[in-house]
């Protein structure tokens, strides 16, 4: 097929090279090559400690704020909101909160915030962090609301709330191969502070941390499998 022809592959490589440059292209190729044989990821830890006033005003026809449990279960009925029961049960049980932007009764965007170690991908691992920070994860903007900076607005408003409550800031991670997301984080004011190198070998996870991870308590630990089986270790 033409899509797998040498000409097509060379064209893809050239486009990557032009977009990312030689260093980032080589990194992307190496990580994906290692991941073909066994799960391999590099998690870039990022930190946001200052509110950007440019991302605080919400469009007047939309309503921002933290959602209560009953509203979350209502929104979970729509599969496009990516709020399945197993996720909600675990997130709510550990006190995680969802800061959302609503268009009437419809969800426009949301992000989740946790003060506790939180399950990542792969789901048999939890990400831990310094208790002074809040972990931001699982951001979503519905397709029809993209281009309105809702992710940035929701995140800055949530950060403002947590700073007022005494938190030091938000922490999160982005996989090193997700170049667009990393660039987006940097545009929003995040800075990178460290990396976790994760490799699964014969069913066991090897973890290597850059020095700054210790300062922010940024680490991975084994998670208990969920009662529904999600997150159980696979052979």
Automatic annotation (TrEMBL):
Alphabetically ordered keywords of this record: Transferase
Membrane spanning residue stretches: none
Gene3D superfamilies assigned: 3.40.630.30
Ranges where the N-acetyltransferase domain occurs: 60-207
Molecular function terms from GO: acyltransferase activity, transferring groups other than amino-acyl groups
The UniProt record lists the keyword Glycosyltransferase: no
Protein name: GNAT family acetyltransferase
Organism name: Pseudomonas flexibilis
